[in-house]
């Protein structure tokens, strides 16, 4: 007589339980583009190029990102999918003209860790993420010169498409100089509140740069030397001086207080979003928990909540 045995080590699943463990839906095809943002600029000032004075900058990259996704085959509508993202829609149109392509049926979706109008290059990161997403959709690679030309038709921009520090003309979308191996930095920053429209500040900044061109020229030389040496402490000093120079045209309410307490809090420098609302302390080495507590208490005393972030390429 045959007997039926069931293993005591492997529990027997009822049909309903087994069904519950099955995947609820198949993995959908998707294409994505991602781009990091910035925490303001380590240097910003006038740069002469082709006989004209331009706004130059060396951005501070941070690990906060913008995402653009495309889900093919779905019922999509560009105006609806990217409502409020006019620059992304313009980037899509420019991309399709550049590569002579047509969008397949599908739906876009967007997400971002970069708040708008704060000085984190949110709109430029959105556009670059859009281009990278489309490159994946069409299995293409948009070269740097084509990308900067596309940006030029949309807005002033930051160099968020690079994975290193660079001296960059924001209006011309032109890389003047790239720097080699770069130090990682750490920033403890606050948002002073409000938002800033970068385009409205372009003319006041250029007027300010004309008036103080000699001071900025000397400071740019120091900045270039610091980046060529990959000297973290010197770069933090450059950022501090850049923040001080910017006070004449885009003042930060908390800068003077932060400068007075910089040494006792162990900071190597101060960084600001020159056309944004962010300001923070820079550190060549990540602060330990005790120091973080001191920083948090300092900013809480100013009525602000601080954030800690790793920065650099």
Can you put this structure into words, describing what you see?
- This protein has 313 residues and is of the alpha+beta class.
- It contains ten helices and nine strands.
- The chain has helices at 15-20, 78-81, 86-99, 122-138, 144-152, 198-211, 213-229, 232-246, 255-261, 289-301, and strands spanning 31-49, 52-72, 106-112, 166-169, 174-178, 185-191, 269-272, 278-283, 307-311.
- Strands 1, 2, 3, 4 and 5 form a five-stranded antiparallel β-sheet that branches. It has a four-stranded antiparallel β-sheet with strand order 7-8-6-9.
- Mean pLDDT is 88; it is low at 1-22.
Gist?
This protein is α+β, with helices and mostly antiparallel strands and 313 residues long. It has helices spanning 15-20, 78-81, 86-99, 122-138, 144-152, 198-211, 213-229, 232-246, 255-261, 289-301, and strands at residues 31-49, 52-72, 106-112, 166-169, 174-178, 185-191, 269-272, 278-283, 307-311.
Structural topology:
Layout: H1 15-20, E1 31-49, E2 52-72, H2 78-81, H3 86-99, E3 106-112, H4 122-138, H5 144-152, E4 166-169, E5 174-178, E6 185-191, H6 198-211, H7 213-229, H8 232-246, H9 255-261, E7 269-272, E8 278-283, H10 289-301, E9 307-311
Antiparallel strand pairs: 1-2, 2-3, 2-4, 4-5, 6-8, 6-9, 7-8
Helix pairs in contact: 3-4, 7-8
